[in-house]
Every structure is written in structure tokens, then in C-alpha cells.
Amino acid sequence: MSDSASIVVVGGGIVGLSAAMALAERGRGRVVVVEAEGGLARHQTGRNSGVIHSGLYYKPGSAKALLCARGRELLYEFCAREAVAHERCGKLVLAVDEREVPALDELERRGRANGLDGIERLGPEEIRRREPHARGVAALWVPQTGIVDYAGVCRAMARRLEARGGEVRLGRRFLGCRGVAGGLEVSTTAGRVSCGALVNCAGLQSDRVARRCGVDPGVRIIPFRGEYHDLVPSARHLVRNLIYPVPDPRFPFLGVHFTRMVAGGVEAGPNAVLAFRREGYRFLDISVRDLWETVSWPGFWVMARHHWRMALGEMGRSLSKAAFHRALARLVPEIRMDQIRRAGAGVRAQAMDRSGRLLDDFSVVAERGMVHVLNAPSPAATASIAIGGRIADMVESGAGSLTRPGPPS
Length: 409
Known about the structure:
FAD/NAD(P)-binding domain, 6-stranded mixed sheet, 10 helices, 409 residues
């Protein structure tokens, strides 16, 4: 079976759908999304904390900082217009002892540099007024943070795409892409599609999709599983909104935290452990191919030598409920181990270069009529509408890179 489209987008997560929606709304012809799974948002988008990030953490002037700030407000507007469940509730970033105060100072500086008006610096008494059961020596209150149903956002984006003549095709795995006269030919498990341009938003498979398009991505996706616990109903009063620790600046992870969910309940986590399979949501999910691609990447062993202590700590929280509980009790000392229960997990598609550096910023490159999203971890969901607009710019211009951000679209 063979047909044609103007643009093919690989991946039915929030970044792929946002890019497809933007291209369709700009009148770029028939836009087709191909998704391997039987539904939308089955991986990173549908398995994260459901947080609308403020932009507090990111280096001023970086693609993450610029696109998160713009994307956050576009997302709030989109959710209000499309009746997607969301709430701008604010969050507390908590320094539990004096050693964490300098890092909190740097977060405050970054937040203000990134335009977060209304950030408040809190002392112990003010912390208790915001979150009565949290304890720390200092904190930041960040009012721009919110919570949202990201799967609902994806469904709304798909509706917008289809209303403008686009199409979402589920259960169609991408196999390859080659240049042909007048454009590209995309092969899937359901046949071939001729098109003028391709956008790779395949997340956990994005480096493989790039290679199957004849592009050397220069990075390898290293999967990190984030495991969550839920608070039992009788403990949910311990958390009003969101409570985060001060993160370790050496790593692109924020540490285990508390998140009130937009559909009800409170989620705790995630940790960050190496996954043995790219879609490995359980500890014993193992793919020999995926594991070999991880350990055979030269940068992996560089990272392992430098950060083995951190890795052991994260693994301990994975294997031991008591260790996970201790991390949570640093923020909310009243919480008991019997008040948390294991919940779901997500896998972060983290790009690593050959030197062992975990890419901190978004990485999106254009080459030969194709745009490849090679690193789009958090806050990509928050920034998705802004990222989608920038991808549409790149498709229209035929060149560019989000690694070197221009002015917001």
C-alpha cells in the first residue's frame, strides 16, 4: 500500500502532535502522523508527572528557558480554549538544610533572569503557611507552575490536526526513509508514504529513526526509568500542591518530589535509574538489543565512572521502599512508609554524546528535508506548542537548529 502526504511526522506524543498541528494550521498541506502504538501519548507524554513547568531551572538564554517560558503560557491558553483539565497552582522548592541554600540562591537568580515575576523567598514560618507539613530552612514559591492532563492535551491537538485535514495513523511502526524524485518515501509496517518533508519526534526511538533516515545523530538515547509512588487517601492532606527539593545541578533530573494530580490524588517521585529496555517500565523489563546499545556507547562508561555513587543511590530508591520513603520524608517529615504505595513509571529519553555528556538542552536539527528531534526531555511537554512552532519554522525554511535558539516564534 502506498499513498502521499505533504509532511509525515513520526511519533504520536505531545511534541509530534504539536508540530503536526502547527504545520496543518499554517496550511502546509496534508500532514500525517504515524505512531507505532495503538494510542496517543503512550510513553513519555502519558507517563510523566503532569506538571506545567515554570522555567525556573534552565540556563537563561537557552532553548529550554526560552521555549518553556513561551510554551507555558501557550499551553495554559490552549487548555482553557480546548477545555483540557488544568490548574495554575504554584509550587514550593524547598532547601531542607543550610547546605542547599546556595543552590536555592542560584535557582532564584535563574528564575528572575527567566522572567518569573512573583517568585517569593520564604523562611520556615512562611513555608508552613504555604505547605503546613513541609519543613525546611528556606524555599522559593513559584506561582507560574501548574498541573495538567497531558493525554487530554494530545487528544485535543489530534482533533485540531484532523479538523485541518491532517490524519493520525496508529499502529504503524516507522521502518525507514529514503530520498526519491521530488521528495521522500517513508516506509512503515502498513505501507509506504511519499512526502515532501519528514519530522522525527519518535522520543525513545528518535536516534534510531534518524539513522534509518541516513543521518548520524551523534548521540545515543539512554533510557532512564522514573518510578512513582502514590499517597494513600488518608495522607493526601500532607501536600497542598507541589513540593520539590533543590536539585543537584550536575544532573538533568529534579529529584523525588510531591505532585498533586489534576484528576485527584498526590504522586511522589520519580527517581532516575538506568532502564534495561527503552520502553522498560518495570525493573525486570530487559531488551538485549537496547541494553547492548547502551553499554556499547563509549560515553556510557565515561558517565558511569563519574557518577556511580549517584547511580547507586537511585538504584537503592528503586529497590527499597524504605529508601524512597526517606527521600520523601526529607521534605515532609510526617509522612509514614505505610502511606505510600508503588504506582506507575515512565522512561525518559535522555540523549548522551560520545564523551558521556548528558545533553541538557533541547536538540533539534534539520537535514535534507527532514527535522530530527534528538533530545526533548522535560520541560518539552510544557514547551510543546512553542517547540511545535519552531519545528514548523524549520520545515518551512529547510534549515536551522533548536540547539541555537532564535527569538520566540
